[in-house]
Amino acid sequence: MQTHQYDVVIVGAGGAGMRAALESSKRTRTAVISKLYPTRSHTGAAQGGMCAALANVEEDNWEWHTFDTVKGGDYLVDQDAAEIMAKEAIDAVLDLEKMGLPFNRTPEGKIDQRRFGGHTRNHGEAAVRRACYAADRTGHMILQTLYQQCVKHDVEFFNEFYVLDVLLSDDLTAGQVPDGAEVRVSGVVAYELATGEIHLFRAKSVVLATGGAGKIYKTTSNAHTLTGDGMALAYRRGLPLEDLEFFQFHPTGLAGLGILLSEAARGEGAILRNGDGERFMERYAPTIKDLAPRDIVSRAMANEVRDGRGAGPDKDYLLLDLTHLEPAHIDAKLPDITEFARTYLGIEPYTEPIPVYPTAHFAMGGIPTTVTAQVLRNAADTVAGLYAAGECACVSVHGSNRLGTNSLLDINVFGKRAGIGAAEYAVGADWVELPAEPEVGVIAQLEGMRARPTGESVADVRRELQQTMDTNAQVFRTAASLQRALVDVRLLQERYRTVSVKDKGRMFNTDLLEALELGFLLDVAEVVVVGALNRQESRGGHYREDFPARDDVRYMQHTMAYRRRAPAAPGTFDVVLGYKPVVVTRYEPMERKY
Amino acid sequence: MATTLEHTADPTPGAPGSVPTFDVTLKIRRFDPEKSGDQAYWEEFTVNARGTDRLLDALHKVKWELDGSVTFRRSCAHGVCGSDAMRINGRNRLACKVLLKDLNPDKTITVEPIKGLTVLKDLVVDMEPFFASFREIMPFLITTGNEPTRERLQSAAQRDRFDETTKCILCASCTTACPVFWTDGQYFGPAAIVSAHRFIFDSRDEGAAQRLEILNDKEGVWRCRTTFNCTDACPRGIEVTRAIAEVKRAMITRAF
Predict the structure, then answer these.
(1) What string of H, E and C letters represents the secondary structure of A389-409?
(2) How far apart are CA A550 and CA A552, in angstroms?
(3) Is the whole-model pTM more than 0.90?
(4) A106: chain B residues, CB-CB within 8 Å
(5) Whole-angstrom distance, CA of residue A456 vs CA of residue A400
């Protein structure tokens, strides 16, 4: 085992991790640990844009952006956090431009802006041009630009290292640490993919920026590597996960494949049609139609298919129609996504509508943090030195449904805040003593899988998990479907205990890594389903057919899910639910209509 | 062990209807220093595939159903992260952007690691030399003077000038398709020059002269023999050879 010592360790090198690294590394000794080369991170797959009320092309202001974010999240958004994000959005975009990001430009040479779902003028009057963009590869440009800046500033990376444990001063899973008592982070344990060696990173501050968990579902826009690692690591150490039942299904995934086609297509004028050729969104959102927020559009699409108005031989998808747009306009604004349609479905978007269906896209919930990105261990107390940002975190700026473009904003605004906070804390803090033999748990887990000659197959368990989540915990949910999902997930967790890998080697053992990732997926899926079962209402991305109305009396609060040792059965754990109040500042909850 | 998954057998909404399946044989270049020393060898696997499957899907089937030790990198699976560049039937491609039906699945498909970088295991190569070349050409915006309060202005035409080379995902397909790079690993290679191009022709950047000096080196742009392998290999459709030619011209004319 090798031991390293840094003031700040950042886990993950996507947008949030690298934005944090740029701040932290100029203040103090910082290392970034990433399971992928930084430029492989899934920030690079984001397409449409990053909203900020620059008002470069029409009147706009951050207060309208705040309101849209709160309403888009169906009032589960913490309004103080949304206001910070909308205000700091403007500098976040300008910072990226100054770093070199090649935004598309207006005729005057300023950053161009376009329409996006749920972003409106004057509290819902009409769609507003707020999304700053670089063709339909805005995320790619953000990821590349942040990596370029990391090269410029000599940020230290440990690439293809997998963090497998977060070390805390206290065991929170026993539920014995009183409220108000100080709990501190002391480092992380990581596995080096190239050699199979274990590395101990001692740190005063740790920033978790590990991204999403879309691979709990079968049909997803997410990368194979988005397996909820950071969320599961925090959860296993007894930290809560907030609002994980809210998962966003993006309306326009390529049918059957789940590959994302940006909402920017509709921002540029594309129209969703059903099998009869009808522009069905006019019935569901009369004012902003195809540019309604994603939860509403995805539900409308699933509903059209259920009512027999789908397109195609099996009437099981909808159509995204760009055929009325000029090919030159499509090439200038949407080159990549039209290429996806050609490559993967053999469709020519100039002349044929594209088959689409909702695809699992984004976790609104995650590791709860304050607005300064500090991780909470209950509704009030933070863990000293521990920070989180990006999709793995929940501030909560997205509430029960994230607006398009607000994730690229989230990673920049709260990634920056996490980097500053972590570095400033570390500069003033003492070293925390490491737990005795901090690596033994991880080694036992790895060696157990490697040594087991035969056992459950990772691929089988994962496939069955993804299948039950798609069938039972997707756009439409009921108590019965969620119960089935929960039974399945728990049986799969049981089978996972005897999982074995075929590759017994030390070097580049991706078989072993997939097994570890599956363990994270199972834990995250369980929390999603338990939270969804408990929330007997419909709000944002969580739609219960048996409880179709929003219920502010019982559920206008954040779910906090804790992993706690089961007193009755030693060695096993329960998901214990608690709540955290929603921060309301300016906007009283209203019915959500578009 | 019993499962309760029978009720999940419904077809997924949005999945394509009855897609015909076929068998496809992959011949994979294997190398595992822990098992076979310094000997690489070929191994064939036959898996069942569907018409919409990518080569990456077939590789996953091999790994998940036949041999978990078959090792390759991948992440996004739709051609934007750049993890899975490999030699497929002798040409550099991203495994997630190649459809099996476009490869003539009646014939065995050969899959090898990209060339010119040290193979670590099966299809995984050491990417460090590749990224080292990238870092050397100063791949970041260089400016002098005070930062403006708002954004720097740039016309749409100025922005268009370098649009093509902003598409690069650093997958190394171009560099490892280049015969000059195969014989001389010191050569910067097409990808690093593409990244330099992206900044040299950005109207906001003031570091072009420094970058051109770096690329005027004996391992720089003059090593390019215009074989167009790089352009053919680029999964992002970048005209790499033309970008290199533009950098050469800028070196002579100092116009950028």
Answers:
(1) CCCCEECCCCCCCCCCCHHHH
(2) 6
(3) yes
(4) 156
(5) 36
